[in-house]
């Protein structure tokens, strides 16, 4: 009985972890499509193969894993690169002065 309880607990934890990872993947992908690669011409961070875009995707993931909100992640990049890094879709929702 203890073994069954332990097995069920492990299965639940595994499925919860997978769900958390899927949510992080979706948030990372969404944020990467909202930010423009600062070294590419008209490509989002998600589309770009540039090393800087790969670094930006990694930074997005790291910040999400550390519990930061989407807005906090965007603010982090805006502070470093300015508001010109927004794609035209995302810029409609942001205040760029």
Key traits:
elongated, 97 residues, mainly alpha, 66% helix, 0% strand
Kindly describe this structure.
This protein is mainly α. Helix content is 66%, strand content 0%. It contains 4 helices and no strands. The protein has helices spanning 2-34, 51-65, 70-81, 88-91. Helix 1 (2-34) crosses helix 2 (51-65). The radius of gyration is 18 Å and the shape is elongated. The termini are far apart. The model has no long low-confidence stretch (mean pLDDT 82).
* Tally of separate helices: 4
CA distance, first residue to last residue = 64 Å
Q: Supply Rg.
A: 18 Å
Mean model confidence by pLDDT: 82
Uncertain stretches of 5 or more adjacent residues: none
Q: What class do helices, strands and sheet pairing give?
A: mainly alpha
β-strand number: 0
**Major sheet: size, sense and barrel closure?**
none
The fraction of residues assigned to DSSP E strands is under 5%
């Amino acid at each position: 009985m203890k073994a069954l309880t332990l097995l069920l607990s492990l299965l639940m934890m595994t499925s919860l972890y997978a769900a958390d990872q899927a949510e992080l993947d979706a948030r990372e992908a969404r944020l990467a499509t909202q930010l423009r690669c600062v070294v590419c011409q008209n490509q989002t961070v998600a589309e770009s193969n540039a090393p800087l875009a790969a670094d930006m995707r990694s930074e997005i993931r790291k910040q999400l894993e550390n519990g930061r909100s989407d807005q906090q992640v965007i603010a982090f990049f805006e502070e470093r690169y300015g508001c010109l890094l927004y794609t035209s879709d995302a810029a409609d929702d942001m205040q760029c002065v």
